[in-house]
Specification:
- The strands form two sheets. Strands 1, 2, 4, 5, 6, 8, 10 and 11 form an eight-stranded antiparallel sheet that branches. The protein has a three-stranded antiparallel sheet with strand order 3-9-7, with no helix packed on it.
- The relative contact order is 0.17.
- Helices cover 24% and strands 15% of the residues.
- The protein starts with 22 loop residues before the first helix and ends in a 6-residue tail after the last helix.
- It is an alpha+beta fold.
- The longest helix has 14 residues.
Length: 295
Amino acid sequence: MGREHLPGCCGGGGEQPPAGLSRRTLLRGTALTTGALAVGGVFGLPGIAHAAPSIYNPFSGYRITGSWQDHLNSGSLGGIDFGMGVGTNLPACGAGTIQNIPNNGTGGHTVTIHHADGYRSQYMHLSQFLLGNGAAVGAGAIVGRSGGAVGAPGSGSSTGPHLHWHMINPSGVRINPLSYIGSNPGGGGLPKTSTEQDGIPGTIFYKRMQNWLRITSGYTGPIDGAPGPNTYAALQRAMRGYGYTGPIDGVMGPNSWMAVQRLAAGYGYTGPIDGAMGPNSWRGFARFLNQDRWN
């Protein structure tokens, strides 16, 4: 087989490549290095109905150290604890607006994300707030840093480094975010990328790639679908297991993309391992990224 060639990307209802990526750039797999962070929608306009918020689990790569039932058994109103080191970036679980609550009783520093329809998500025991009150964020935006060290500012009654997460429904009742994700048909995680069908990577494709890299390879930036050097450095780390031996510099070249093609070969790609990404390479990579575990 010869080299793959990328078809035109206009027309149809599929996902579009981020602005600024030319046909030649997509062919070579060169990174998009700039892009604005997507922010939440407009809330509360008269006459506009809002669906339940689309929520995903940003912390699926961390061990649960305290279950919902553990919290109830200890007299808490409920929550999920995830073990993580102090200073870990905390991505927003869904779009909304930010409210920071310093020294919120036993919860310590608390960031609240106000979602559509009155739902709220709260992260507790923070070591640092990063955004101002009223800031609009999209899913995956970094809203603060974890804390929980005993006696440290913002830790509240925490007995060790971790993040506490719960949601609050419009009636003001705490709900388990993992149960909400599992039962809410409008939420549950990142959507699947249409790249699996059309071979054209776009914003959703890159969001799923960033979330996979966050879970497995140390990526700590926003889940915004606009990959840059930090995203690609994490991708190069992930590709160590697929024969990549070059520098971790966030600059994708043929050797980096050859490793991606080796990964894609496990998901239906049958073309050459030549480092020239085309629609069949992207389709194989997208099949990998569309697995539920990267939602």
